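notes to self, project folder thing:

trying the whole complex as one job this time. last attempt i did each chain seperately and stitching them together was a nightmare. two parts in total, labels are on each line so i dont mix them up again. if this works i'll redo the older ones the same way
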Amino acid sequence: MNALVTTAEFLSRSAKEVEQALAEAIPAEWVFPVQLREAMMYSVEAGGKRLRPILVLAAAEAVKGDSDAWHSAMPVACAIEMIHTYSLIHDDLPAMDDDDFRRGKPTNHKVYGEAVAILAGDGLLTHAFYSVSQAAKRGVSAETVIAIVSDLARLAGVPGMVGGQAADILGEQGRTTLAELEYIHSRKTSDLIVFSVTAGARIGGASPAQIEALTEFAHKLGLAFQVQDDILDLIGDEQKLGKPTQSDVQQQKVTYPYLIGLEESKTLVERLTKEATEALTRAGLGKPEWLFAISEYLMSRDH
Amino acid sequence: MNALVTTAEFLSRSAKEVEQALAEAIPAEWVFPVQLREAMMYSVEAGGKRLRPILVLAAAEAVKGDSDAWHSAMPVACAIEMIHTYSLIHDDLPAMDDDDFRRGKPTNHKVYGEAVAILAGDGLLTHAFYSVSQAAKRGVSAETVIAIVSDLARLAGVPGMVGGQAADILGEQGRTTLAELEYIHSRKTSDLIVFSVTAGARIGGASPAQIEALTEFAHKLGLAFQVQDDILDLIGDEQKLGKPTQSDVQQQKVTYPYLIGLEESKTLVERLTKEATEALTRAGLGKPEWLFAISEYLMSRDH
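result (full assembly):
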């Protein structure tokens, strides 16, 4: 991408490229039963920032120093968006968070029923690994593809996102400690961000030291993102967010503002973002500009 | 395995080896939240024939002609049992088949609640791909591991098992045709059998022609297995099966005996098994004895 475009333009253009690739990655011939593919596409096309896939692409470009890394990285970018989407479908289910709306639209099970929503989630989760395997056809070495499969299964699985969701669901209302909350956020949110950045970096040809620095960058960026989410749920604009605010308060969810206060939470977002960008600097990448720009954008976002 | 042991002994010993490997493949340090690992292990340890993992191991040995192929094939054997187990947990959910008992024990969600059951399924599905990635550490080439990841995602995903379950759930009671029923059984049951046999064969070093013959073998074996399941639900022994019989009739499920009659269904099992073993002969394997023995055993099983 040309460095003269703004961050907002970069994110918008990148999101469109990801959305096109996603539509191609989910075969049109999956027509039996037709409701299953429809349910998958309903949630995949429901929008969102496409932050995770964009981080895969931006990290690959940042390490390689060339935007031709995007072509190799796109199957993995699609994979992480499929994982993110499946997690939203399952999290919204009546047995889990029981949400009726997501991004201003009825949730998957409200439209297609619970059975199809569960299966649409299972289908997206499974297909994510198919998508990763396709990177081998775009010049990514077989060893790197296997490392990415292993990372994805770990960071999206029980030691990562699935474990975080279980800890969140099983936690007692109002009794979560700050350490537990950081654990839940790290697993539920940071781990997919860590996957996105490090998988892109692997495809770009990162050294082990670069992977280590980028893991810290992504972990702190993910936590900052989640704390900002907590803040926006409290004081954000419902129109911009596309969902009702104050839902955490109503559901008696323990959040950063609840535990440490609003001002302290804002300071935490700033501190985490600063530490994230320091780690990013330490990685010594060839073309890190978009990763810096994304970090800054996320800290100041209002939706 | 020594050829002097009986098929029943071979299956029982093999199942024990698989069960030990499965317990090791799901890390003991996954203790937070403790209910999640417990729920996963509850269903993983609930028994069953371990048919799919045993087919992975037997196929690897059959192609390679040496039982040392088991060591390389075990991570993939564990993976397919994790996939099978997750599919049972999700299929039993109230929104799906709404079953209270499985193998004589309360189903996962009856013990751990729906939320944990959904997450235990998601965790097992995700971890299956981690397990496949570990085969690369046991002498399986990186290219073969990627082919297996891709096969598993396809055959367990929307074009395979998940699509079959969706078609089954969405099918109208009493109005399924024979062609639709064969489609559902092929996706729900045969596809995981095809995966098991071909993944093992790939690890054993099979040629493309052998993979093709073994795909036909496994597809027909899987269909025979499913028709036999339909028959046993109608006329089997509840004690031996560990579940109530006549459940298909009560749920007005369309089965082979319903569509073509009991005697015709028995004839079909025999014909499919015969065609399966002919395809197996055509594969020209070095040591196919256990695959032949398993085929014969499945046709005559009473549970």
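what i see at first glance: The domain at 7-298 of chain B is CATH 1.10.600.10 (Farnesyl Diphosphate Synthase).
need to look closer tmrw
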